[in-house]
């Protein structure tokens, strides 16, 4: 196994969630991507806008919402990740029930094993979720664990859960926690906690068996089951199918929403919705009333101007990445006053191609794409 880093140190790289705005989710049709079929793909979205797909131990990366993919290297030999998560810093985490958790913070060039506390069979972890108050939730084959100190210590939080094998979990912005659990060799059901996991209530309604759950920025829940994607707008009680076009026996295991509002679902293959499912509009990208503007000119031959507007004083981080996720430049950082701001990006020493610039203000991240031409 590669060199271990402590789990608490690894979690310091976490601390936020990708937000794309509180807009309504609509149904969508689906089209298959170019990735080879036959794997149980796990998906994640980085804060630089990159979409990551892990099939077996092989990672693939897309900079255009899943239209095209490039190889991203091998995580570790003999790994079959059950979870894939990106941190706000851009670090990527992959969790395997049998082998453990691995982390890459250098654009997937190298991976390090992450040392988990209580690393026994009962703590085998297949999913993680993060609360807005800094809590870390681990879904294991023996219930839910919660940490309030970045993984230094853990507390069991499974009161009310009948099935203890946590298959998937999601946390909404208002701190509701959802898990789908299993008994040994059979399905239990969907549970909700409104007290940070202290107690759980089994939900009725028409929820199917979920292999993946995510919380959308507007509070809706999305879940995958077999070859279908479902949506709930009432806190997980009533579920409806979201679109058509997914293949039979696809066995979906993962779903993400990209910064442009498109859904990408992974199973034996990877599918993308044929249009954005969040009505984000065509105007500037907005995050908590702050505005990130498209660079101008775009495309650009040498340098370009990037503007942003702050509704109030905020800590800002504006950085540029290439399509592999490698950090290229930091354009702005630190506390900025409200109002209009602009920076120049000089790409004269860089190869031509597409780049992404990532804007973080008040802990909310948005990204845009720009083209350097010669």
Characterization of this structure:
This protein is an all-beta fold and 374 residues long. It folds into two domains: 4-273, Neuraminidase; 285-372, Immunoglobulin-like, CATH 2.60.40.2550. The chain has one helix at residues 7-11; strands at residues 4-6, 30-32, 42-45, 51-55, 58-62, 70-74, 83-86, 92-96, 100-104, 112-115, 125-130, 136-140, 143-147, 155-156, 165-171, 177-183, 186-193, 201-202, 212-215, 221-225, 228-232, 240-241, 254-257, 263-266, 270-273, 285-287, 290-292, 303-310, 314-321, 327-336, 339-346, 353-361, 364-372. The strands form eight sheets. It has a five-stranded mixed beta sheet with strand order 1-10-9-8-7. The radius of gyration is 20 Å and the shape is globular.
Short description:
With 374 residues, the protein is mostly beta strands.
Descriptive keywords:
single chain, mainly beta, Neuraminidase, five-stranded mixed β-sheet, four-stranded antiparallel β-sheet, 1% helix, signal, Xyloglucanase_GH74, WD40/YVTN_repeat-like_dom_sf
Report the biggest beta sheet as strand number plus sense, adding barrel if it closes: 5 strands, mixed
Number of strands: 33
Helix count? 1
Structural class: mainly beta
Q: Could you say which overall geometry the principal axes of the C-alpha atoms support?
A: globular
Radius of gyration from the alpha-carbon trace, in angstroms: 20 Å
| CATH architecture verdict of the largest domain | 6 Propeller
CATH topology of the largest domain: Neuraminidase
Protein name: T9SS type A sorting domain-containing protein
InterPro entries: WD40/YVTN_repeat-like_dom_sf, Xyloglucanase_GH74
Keywords: Signal
Signal peptide: 1-27
């Amino acid at each position: 196994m590669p060199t271990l880093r402590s789990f608490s140190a690894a979690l310091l790289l976490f601390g936020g969630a990708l937000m794309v705005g509180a807009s309504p989710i609509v149904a969508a049709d689906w089209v298959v991507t170019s990735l080879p079929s036959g794997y149980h793909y796990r998906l994640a979205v980085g804060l630089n806008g990159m979409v990551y797909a892990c099939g077996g131990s092989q990672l693939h990366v897309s900079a255009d919402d899943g239209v095209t993919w490039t190889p991203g290297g091998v995580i570790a030999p003999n790994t079959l990740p059950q979870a894939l998560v990106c941190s706000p810093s851009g670090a990527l985490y992959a969790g395997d029930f049998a082998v453990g958790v691995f982390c890459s913070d250098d654009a997937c060039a190298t991976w390090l094993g992450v040392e988990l506390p209580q690393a026994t069979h009962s703590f085998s972890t297949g999913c993680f979720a993060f609360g807005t108050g800094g809590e870390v939730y681990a879904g294991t084959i023996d219930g839910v664990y919660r940490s309030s100190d970045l993984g230094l210590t853990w507390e069991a939080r499974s009161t009310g859960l009948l099935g203890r094998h946590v298959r998937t979990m999601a946390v909404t912005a208002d701190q509701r926690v959802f898990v789908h659990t299993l008994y040994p060799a059979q399905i239990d059901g969907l549970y909700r906690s409104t007290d940070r996991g202290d107690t759980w209530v089994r939900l009725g309604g028409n929820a199917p068996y979920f292999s993946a759950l995510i919380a959308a920025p507007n509070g809706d829940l999305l879940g995958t089951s077999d070859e279908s994607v479902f949506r709930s707008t009432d806190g997980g009680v009533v579920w409806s199918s979201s679109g058509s076009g997914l293949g039979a026996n696809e066995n979906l295991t993962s779903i993400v929403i990209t910064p442009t509002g498109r859904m990408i679902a992974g199973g034996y293959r990877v599918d993308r919705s044929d249009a954005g499912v969040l009505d984000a509009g065509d105007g500037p990208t907005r995050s908590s009333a702050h505005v990130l503007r498209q660079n101008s000119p775009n495309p650009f031959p040498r340098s370009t101007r990037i503007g942003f507007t702050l509704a109030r004083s905020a800590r800002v981080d504006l950085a540029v990445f290439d399509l592999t996720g490698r950090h290229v430049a930091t354009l702005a950082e630190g506390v900025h006053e409200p109002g209009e701001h602009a920076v120049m990006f000089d790409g004269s020493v860089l190869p031509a191609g597409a780049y992404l610039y990532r804007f973080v203000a008040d802990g909310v991240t948005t990204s845009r794409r720009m083209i350097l031409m010669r």
